[in-house]
Each structure stands twice: as C-alpha cells, then as structure tokens.
Amino acid sequence: MKAFFAGLLAALVLASPAQAAFPDKPIRFIVAFAPGSSTDIVARLLAQQLTQTLGQTVLVENRPGAGGNIATVHVMNAPADGYTLLVHSVAFSVNPSLYANAGYDAMKDLQPVAMGAVTPNLLYVHPDVKATTLAELLALARNGKMAYASSGIGTTTHLGAELLFRSLAKVDVTHIPFQPAAATNAVVSGQVPIASTSMPPAVPFAKTGKVRPIAVMSLKRSPALPDVPTVAESGYPGFEANTWLAVFAPARTPTAVLDQLNAEINKALVSATVKERFDTLALEAQPSDRETLRRYVESETLKWGRFIKDAGIKAE
After folding, report:
1. 138 versus 224: which is more confidently predicted?
2. For 107-164, what is each residue's pLDDT tens digit?
3. CA-CA distance, 17 to 133, in Å (whole number)?
4. Superfamily of domain 24-119+243-311
C-alpha cells in the first residue's frame, strides 16, 4: 500500500507542469510621465541594464496623464505577476491627497519594489530674464506679473515652488503645469520665463546656456551644477524639495518575485553605465531593501498629504 501511494504521488508530481522561473517573458515598465522626463530617463536606463541581466527584454511604455494616475491605475489593475511594473515619481505619494479621486490608495494598492533615484529640484529662468540670483528674481516677480512652469500639479516641483513663492517670499507667481520635459522646453523657447523642475531635463540646457539656473532646492549644492546656490543659502534656511523616482508593482505580486526584482534593480543602480549617466544628470542612486522603501514612501505620503491639506491645494 505504501508503495502504491508513493508511486501515485510521484506520478502526480511528474504530471504537474513545472513552474517557470521568473522571468520567462518580457517585462513592461509603465512610466507615469512623458518621454524625456526624469522618470522616463531612469526607467530607460534600468530597462537597458535589466534586459542584459535578466535575459528578458524590459519594454518601456509611457502612459502620461492626470499627474501619473493613469499609469498607476493601469498597473494596479494588471496581473500581479511581476511582468507589469510602474515607474513613478514622488507624485505617487502626493496624488491621493491632491485629487478628489486619484483612483488608488498609495498604502494598499501597489507595493514599492525599488528606489530608482533622487534628484534635487531646480529653479531656473530663460536667459532674457534679468535675474541671476533668487533675490533678484523675487524682486522682478514683485514688480511685475510673472509665471513659472512646473513638472505638473502636485509634483514637488510645483509644491516646492508654491512654498517658496507664496508661503515664504509672499510673491504671487502664476503656476503653469506641464509634463516634465515640456516644462523645460517652455523656458528654453521663451514661452514661460521661469521653471521649477527636477534637474535631469534642465541640466543639459543649463550647461549650454539655454537656461540660467537660479537655485537648487536641496539642502546641499549639486555636483552637477556646483556653482548654483541652494534656496537654503539664498535666504531660506532649511528649505528642501526633492524628486524621487521608484518602481512599484501590483499589491498581490509574490514576495519572491518582488525580492528578485529589488535585488536586480539595486544591482543595476551601481553598474558603471547607470552611475555615469546619473552623474551627468544630477541623479543620485539610492539602492534600498523593500521594507526601508515601504516606510519611506509611507512617510512621504503622510508628509505631503498634510502639506496639501494645510495649503488647500487641489488638482483642477
């Protein structure tokens, strides 16, 4: 009898299909913003590295709109198998408080997989603007109606600028939201005189003189633009507004798959190719384990939620 059951068990095991190792087909990165944005740049760099290390193609698909909510909801509703991932910015944590119905709960509907990068936000102007310092720019804004472009409503490029202009400097500067790369192009073309964006779209133009950097919004100066002072040292101590970029997966994705993706992305972040490209764009790689990232995303969601409520900011 024992031999019979042992034989039956062996037969069932042999008859069961073998579980394929992850990944056994292409992976998709769904990017929350348009091509050329910091989020897109990070997604494409990671996709290139992961394609080599995982042995499967990692495709990049941009789904901009609603401050990133369209991409987020798409991934939230995708199969929880690790093959559809979201690449988003700090707006992931901001949007549930900013929008009446963002379509997702940042704490429940998706899981953080890996931190991609952190970058300071940058305040800069068209070369025709007669200001080379933050004090000069604020003086111009007080004496005439001006506008600034940001990377979109609710991004830290928007919230940080509102905190600086309206709350601290008491200056009324009109906000014009764009997609991230489009905000930089709006200043380069002279369409808008001022921009507040993350650094990657702006640094190449700053180095060629097509925009003039005024101040970085990190606590320390950026190695990419070492001569540009911080907002903090320009009269507003402690001021900080950064952009972070991370990878997320649907909530019920298996832990083993998430851990594998976390390890592979962390490995990609310290590769020579990614590090060299990050350095030129003022992006800082921040490899971390998933639990550390989860706690950080949760703290960011609570922090920006309080600020948005206190400032009364809402997406139109």
Report:
1. 138
2. 999 999 999 999 899 999 999 999 999 999 999 999 989 999 998 888 899 999 999 9
3. 66
4. Bordetella uptake gene, domain 1 (3.40.190.150)
For the chain, how many residues are written? 316
Token pair for 278: 């990050």
Res. 294: pLDDT tops 50: yes
Note the helical H segments in 25-80.
38-54, 69-76
**Rounded-to-integer distance, Cα 62 and Cα 75, Å:** 12
Q: Where are the domains of the chain?
A: 24-119+243-311, 120-234
Amino acid at 264: E
* Residue 14 structure tokens: 């042999």
Q: Are 24-119+243-311 and 120-234 the same fold in CATH?
A: yes
How far is residue 239's CA from residue 308's CA, in Å, rounded to a whole number?
17
Which tokens in the block code for residue 90? 């700090």
Assessment of whether the complete model's pTM goes beyond 0.85: no
| Closest to 154 in 3D by CA, of 77, 109, 220, 102 | 102
**What interhelical angle do 290-311 and 91-98 show, nearest 10?**
40
Contact 148, 173 (CB under 8 A): yes
C-alpha separations of 182 from 156, 169, 200 in Å: 16, 26, 13
**CA 82 to mean position of chain CA atoms:** 20
**Strands, E assignment, the chain:** 27-31, 58-62, 84-89, 110-125, 147-150, 174-177, 194-198, 212-216, 242-250
- The more confidently predicted of residues 304 and 132 is 132
CA–CA distance, 52 with 42 (Å, rounded to integer): 16
| Architecture (CATH level 2) of domain 120-234 | 3-Layer(aba) Sandwich (3.40)
116 SS3 class = strand
For the segment 274-286, what is each residue's pLDDT rounded down to a tens digit?
999 998 888 999 9
